[in-house]
Design brief:
The protein is α+β, with helices and mostly antiparallel strands. It has 13 helices and 25 strands.
């Protein structure tokens, strides 16, 4: 865990490799878990949803299925019957704003503690399915006896081995928190923040730290004291596992985290066998292609065996990349085609085994005869790449740009159109330096052809203020792509051949 002026970075290492990375920048932290007193801005009956103003710029999105409160029916509901513009609602963010979309909101509030999650408008007791049956029964028996003033409980995986006293203390603190939220709601205007979820460092400690974690290293003494103080109140037996980093150099660089973070910007991921993954993001989904690359097997190894081993290795690495990059939504994995159904099942099982360590909810469809696996992974917030990058201003995030040759052809057409019927000669024509290179190549063959066809003499000027596909004729510019503002202009003249030379 590394904390500096600009951001907090948390890395989770498993078997010496970086498995997850969370980056939280100052003033741009996640809002997932925050609770607001909001105002209904609009109700869209056709979408069975409403937009809620919560005071964070973009209005949040609330679906009818997430409208939960005392006295509100749970079945056969219409959004227009429950909400109207101007209504006051208490909502919680379950997904961060992404792109042009606002936060996803719910009225089914949940307050997370160290071992329990208290659901004020819920009912019953839910137990983490990651716990074994005996532990689930033990925890359920304890929770049935806990004093609850309405609401439901979810017992977290971290509650494994927790005593009745620890669970009761956790629930008591959550009940006090809910009471404070309700009291604050009655006092503040619309819209107002009622509760802020813990920052990424404390959230990781709360959600992950248990007996299976060897140690937590922090490179900031103040943050270390903050985390230890939290653990002394919730799990004092784990406080000694949090230590201040006193090694040489930077903490994250020492453990290879810096390189892992930078690797999330790469499209291609190498595999130890010589194969690779190619990860492409689209608007609708993420597509991951598995390539055998240099992995051609050894000796008398059959092709099917080589392919299967590559796919098995890729299945594990795919899950690591999903966690490392925090990829969510629809994901399609194109494994190398396998003829044997048994091998396809083995790859699917390897994928599911690796996903067992993923804390994010996933759903996987069995591998198809074409070698495709379709899956979904809950998308809550931006990953490292989205936080660290912006869309390219040249390509607009598409990943490609129009070639200089294409720009040159466009500029040539504009020059011919603008100068058609012109008798004035010579004519000064400004073009982008890249375009000028094409027009003056091969002893200005293209320029000579234009001059001969138009019957005039042209003097080319290199003008960096112009857009690549535009041309300036005399003092004006041809083409809608011409630059309107110039911060810097450089010009150089090239000798033009006389017309007809």
């Amino acid at each position: 865990m590394s904390i500096d002026r600009a951001e907090t970075r948390v890395a989770i290492l498993e078997d010496g490799r970086v498995a997850e990375v969370q980056i939280e920048r100052r003033g741009k932290g996640s809002v997932v878990g925050h609770i607001w007193k909001g105002r209904v801005e609009s109700v869209l009956a056709g979408m069975e949803a409403s937009f809620i103003e919560v005071g964070i710029g973009k209005n949040g999105f609330l679906h009818v299925d997430d409208v939960v409160a005392e006295g509100v029916p749970k079945k056969k509901r219409l959004i227009a019957d429950m909400l109207k513009k101007g209504d006051e609602v208490i909502v919680q963010a379950v997904k961060d704003p992404m792109g042009t979309k606002g936060a996803r909101l719910t009225m089914q509030l949940s307050l997370a503690g160290r071992f329990l999650v208290y659901v004020p408008f819920g009912d019953g007791i839910g137990i983490s399915k990651r716990l074994d049956d005996d532990e689930r029964h033990r925890l359920r028996d304890i929770c049935k006896k806990l004093p609850r003033d309405g609401g439901g409980l979810i017992v977290r995986t971290a509650a494994a081995g927790a005593s009745a006293t620890e669970l009761a203390r956790d629930l008591a603190s959550l009940n006090l928190l809910w009471k404070a939220i309700r009291e604050r709601s009655a006092q503040v205007p619309l819209p107002s923040l009622l509760y802020s979820e813990a920052d990424s460092s404390l959230k990781v400690i709360r959600d992950i730290l248990n007996d299976s974690v060897d140690e937590v290293l922090v490179d900031d003494a103040r943050q270390h004291e903050r985390i230890v103080g939290f653990l002394r109140r919730t799990s004092p037996e784990l406080a000694d596992r949090v230590k201040v980093w006193d090694g040489d150099g930077q903490l994250l660089k020492h453990f290879g985290v810096e390189d892992a973070i930078r690797s999330t910007l790469n499209r291609r991921v190498p595999l130890a066998s010589g194969g690779s993954l190619v990860i492409d993001d689209t608007e609708a989904m993420t597509v991951i292609d598995v390539n055998s690359g240099k992995n051609v097997g050894r000796g008398n190894t059959q092709l099917e065996d080589t392919i299967t081993r590559t796919n098995l290795e890729a299945a594990t690495e795919v899950v690591r990349q999903l966690r490392l990059r925090d990829i969510g939504g629809i994901i399609v994995i194109d494994f190398i085609d396998m003829d044997n159904a048994k091998n396809r099942r083995a790859v699917t099982q390897a994928l599911n085994d690796a996903l067992a360590n993923d804390r994010t909810r996933t759903f996987v469809v069995e591998i198809s005869p074409l070698g495709l696996v379709q899956m979904t992974r809950q998308n809550i917030s931006d990953g490292a790449r989205e936080i660290m990058t912006n869309h390219c201003p040249t390509c607009g995030g598409q990943g490609f740009v129009v070639s200089a040759e294409t720009h040159a052809i466009d500029a040539e057409r504009q020059i011919r159109m603008a100068l058609a019927g012109t008798s004035e000669s010579p004519v000064a024509v400004g073009v982008h330096p890249e375009v000028m290179g094409f027009l003056t190549a091969d002893d200005s063959a293209v320029l000579a052809a234009i001059e001969e066809d138009l019957g005039i003499s042209i003097t080319l000027e290199s003008d960096t203020s112009l857009a690549p596909g535009s041309a300036r004729i005399g003092g004006g510019a041809a083409g809608s792509g011409a630059s309107r503002s110039r911060t810097r202009t450089t010009r150089s003249r090239s000798a033009a051949k006389p017309a007809g030379a």
